[in-house]
């Protein structure tokens, strides 16, 4: 059963976090300088909590907010090309009520899914350091603990796969040996959870065809099957 009160408290703690000086400086600089296309907008410029259906059975784990996406809009995968791909697929597979997400108040609703990130602040060059990863890990561990219905974790990229393994170990789940390797469509049963690997819907992957719509849809259809 989901602990919604604790989940709300966690959100309040996440958005004021200042554990990582490099990330704090970068997210705030981006919010102050802004991209020309968004010069008139007020940037969020803070860490991002997860969002979605509190009774979700599927958790979607990304890498980190985009500097001019989530760091601008205040919601993970909202207002950037990666989000267009992610929510487009979640819409086609029945997890979202609309295929796009442009702002926190655009009416997007998720059913059966919760979306969050391994690192909650936008990192320079989309590359968090190991220390920043470790500083953020407790947020995910708590989130998984409060979301009582999660059974499937879709990891977008190898970084998220690694962080998911670390989080499940912190929750006391026995890690299988050998260590499960990331790959698109990879699966690993870890205690009561199943990890699913998916290439990250970054422009680098979608523009080159490394990730196609049928490929990402296939992962979410599999997640739906596993979640029952």
Description:
- Strands 1-3-2-4-6-5 form a six-stranded mixed sheet, sandwiched between helices.
- The protein is globular, with a radius of gyration of 16 Å.
- The chain has one domain: 3-Layer(aba) Sandwich (Uracil-DNA Glycosylase, subunit E).
- The chain starts with a helix and ends with a helix.
- Helices cover 40% and strands 12% of the residues.
- The chain is built from eight helices and six strands, in the order H-H-E-E-H-H-E-H-E-H-E-E-H-H.
- The chain is of the alpha/beta class and 228 residues long.
- The model has no long low-confidence stretch (mean pLDDT 96).
Keywords:
228 residues; alpha/beta
Give me a quick take on this structure:
The protein is an alpha/beta fold. Helix content is about 40%, strand content about 10%.
